[in-house]
């Protein structure tokens, strides 16, 4: 476990100079990462719910983590495996479709210690492109908890939009009796679709 955490910290070191340049440019508001323009790295949506014209549109970028994990029984809360896709996450909370139209992209499906600069930059480009669409109200990123705040910080520094970006995770796998991921996801989508969340930077929704 500890070597994974150390490797994760080292991977972020490669982008720290960019962080420093951005911070010195403006200490109180987000600025665009140099050269970061809307670019459709995710060419195919992995999930699209039926459209209700009366609802806002939220896009989910799934990266893996405990929220997308399952165990061999409903009492297993350690040693579980990652593998649920974005459609399975949405299908587990059908109430989400009463709040927002949902589109989904599978950005990765790994534990958060494996989130590296390649995934981060692809994620930032994809989210930037999605938020540039007039019809999209906000974005939710499902993520493992070990490095969730680091990804949120990276997105805060690289995405230049007033639309909501909400990073969400879970402490227990989806198959657990006490799974917290579904309600966390419901609340994250609710937040991302709210006008009151605009201009607040990247936010984290966790712990129900």
Secondary structure elements and their pairing?
Blueprint: H1 2-13, H2 16-25, E1 47-48, E2 57-64, E3 69-70, E4 81-82, H3 86-91, E5 101-110, H4 117-131, E6 138-142, H5 148-158, E7 165-168, H6 181-192, E8 202-205
Parallel strand pairs: 2-5, 2-6, 6-7, 7-8
Antiparallel strand pairs: 1-5, 3-4
Characterize the structure shown:
The protein is of the alpha/beta class. It has a domain at 56-71 and 100-107 and 117-208: 3-Layer(aba) Sandwich (Rossmann fold). It has 6 helices and 8 strands, in the order ααββββαβαβαβαβ. The chain has helices spanning 2-13, 16-25, 86-91, 117-131, 148-158, 181-192; strands at residues 47-48, 57-64, 69-70, 81-82, 101-110, 138-142, 165-168, 202-205. It has a 6-stranded mixed beta sheet. Strands 3-4 form a two-stranded antiparallel sheet. The longest helix has 15 residues, at 117-131. Mean pLDDT is 84; it is low at 1-12 and 22-40.
